[in-house]
Amino acid sequence: MAEETGGVRLTVLDDGAAPAVSVVPVAELAARVRELDAASRPRWVWADTATTYGRLLRAGARVERCFDLRLCRKILRRAVGAPPPSDLWDDVEEREDRHDAPPTLFESLTLPAEEVLAERLRQREAVAASREPGRLAALLAAESAGALLAAEMRHDGLPWDRTVHDQLLTEVLGARPPLGARPPVLEALAEDVRGALDAPRLNPDSGQALLRALHSAGISVQTTRKWELEQVDHPVVAPLLEYKKLARLHSANGWAWADEWVRPGPAGAGRERFHPDYVPGGVVTGRWATRGGGALQLPKQVRGAVVADPGWTLVVADVAQLEPRVLAAMARDEAMARAAHGQDLYQGLVDQGVIDTRAHAKVAMLGALYGATSGAAGDLAPRLLRAFPRATSVVEGAAMRGEVGGTVRTWLGRTSPPPPPAWTAVQDKQHERDATDDDRRRARRLARDWGRFTRNFVVQGTAAEWALCWLADLRARLRALGGDGGAGHSPHLVFFLHDEVIVHTPVALAEDVAAAVRESAAGAGRLLFGEFPVDFPLDVSVVDTYADAE
DNA sequence: CCTGGGCGCGCG
DNA sequence: AAAGCGCGCGCCCAGG
Predict the structure, then answer these.
(1) Which spans does this entry mark as compositional bias, Basic and acidic residues (predicted)?
(2) What are the tens digits of pLDDT across the range A58-102?
(3) CA of A261 and C1' of C9: distance in angstroms?
């Protein structure tokens, strides 16, 4: 599918048949797409899902499957260096690399029909010629399914009760202030802070001024971070920490935020909608990012404003300890999979006698995934190595490749970026004749930094692939439960956060949805890791408000 | 005046 | 206890 002036060009490719080309006027597009999708469940191919599918959604059409050429190209370029450069795509890639593209450019990425077809062929050849075509193909399909879902969730929005939100804000901040002013409670707390520090003109939003005022009052902190302030015994600490917490709420998810991101919902829904702008593939590891609205940082404080429509409910599900489970599976580490059997992997480590307490198990495991070297995590690392040599070798191997400037790949073949030129320059410098100890220290430090990145990349990236497979399968199951998948009357996904989903569903279907969520999780595990015995247990709650999910 | 970096904190 | 991964965003502040 390619957009043209006044219409959209559809080219139907059927194996063995000649391509059938038609140009559909925009006014007829939705009906035509619905008809084709129902008749033959095609895989729609287009340059960019946000552009084209966004338009289709607004016109009232949903589709089952697609290839997002822009996202697939990004993956393929890293993974196999193909498809080859092309002037038409270079612009897109450059803009993405520079991160300075105005959103409007992204939102209207269209290409000539010939280019869409040519690019699809180039990508198909690149996959076929790759080392593991099956896995890469699965990754491209999952990425594209994610793109469909992101567009749908953006379009449908997250049910949001502005009244609850406003009450919540007013309760803790006081009445809404004029634009740019502090709410009364914040102003009072600022005054308390000024009094306690004897700094009458202090603006507590200024980190530098605050640090100076703390020092003047005889408080010797290095930073103004929360955890450091918590160690200090001084009357300023309580009001200052409260100020920081509320100031954050006010600026990040306050009234101004709601004005910008919450809009009226569909007619008859009764509830408004928060419309975040998800960016599939926006993180190097394959996780989604967001652009505006901060949907991936929706604080627990305001989750009470996420409320189902009357007659509807929310099914909230999250995976317990996704990343260590993914590591066990990709490493084929059966000992670790045994410890991961059941709901609580960290307790599993204790029960298997690997580590003494659950708290230690958590610290040690996260340390292994992130590359902690010091503190409790560093001390516990040898125990994990002895208990789970296979899993350990996967992350250690990834770290070693990163430290020497190599790249690593996720389970399905998403490839890490090479280190930046400045990194390589520093590594080269340390071997020159006039290199100083300082140069060598710097090079080693940067090498270890990059090693921690590649170490985490393989696990975080594979976890993101699991989550995409989970989403794609769940989306299909929900469509089957609810007819054509329109958001008006059938269960649909409204939120996704790395290892957590929210489905908005008519109350009568809540149990079916909960079952679907579990089946999809099991299916994602089998799709990626076959019969390797690793569980992906979910915490599922059926609630009226997100705040009530555990 | 705008822009980019640093900081701090929200999320996983 | 407080560093080890990936992000976005709002705020200050220095530099142009």
Answers:
(1) 428-440
(2) 999 999 999 999 999 999 999 998 887 777 777 666 666 555 444
(3) 14
